[in-house]
Amino acid sequence: MTGGTHHGACLCGSTAFEVAGSLDDVVICHCSQCRRANGGAFNVAVVVPSAAVEFTSRAQLREFESSPGKLRAFCGGCGCPIYSRLADDPETLRLRGGTIVDLPRPANLRQIWWNDRWPWIDTVFDTPRYEKDVAG
After folding, report:
1. What are 29-56's pLDDT values in tens digits?
2. CB pairs under 8 A, 24+ apart, for 119-127?
């Protein structure tokens, strides 16, 4: 279990939130839409009840309807993705894992749209690892 209160924020800090309770449901999505929306190889979504999230700062929070009924929220200050939600499921938010400070290991971790992944993503753990950026 990963109960308690968890804190999250965007890169510039103008969007911040607290999540009460468990962060045990995490989905890694490899679909091309999530890759474009997050600018990465995949999206890490922490699925939580909307009622468990309290925004402590939201002046720059913006939503964009990326497909019919799917809304993606981001910080208008720095562009950081914050969450996605479905219009027909207002009780659930999918927070972006990278915004949560010290995201604990979830009990329920799964990957979706696996066949849409970049074909080489399976090999990333076979590459050299460094403590900090090295000129290449």
Report:
1. 999 999 998 889 999 999 999 999 999 9
2. 121/30, 121/41, 121/42, 124/41
Q: Going from the N-terminus, what domains does the chain have, and what CATH number goes with each?
A: 5-116 (2.170.150.70)
3, two tokens: 């109960």
pLDDT score for 136: 62
What is the pTM for the complete model shown?
0.88
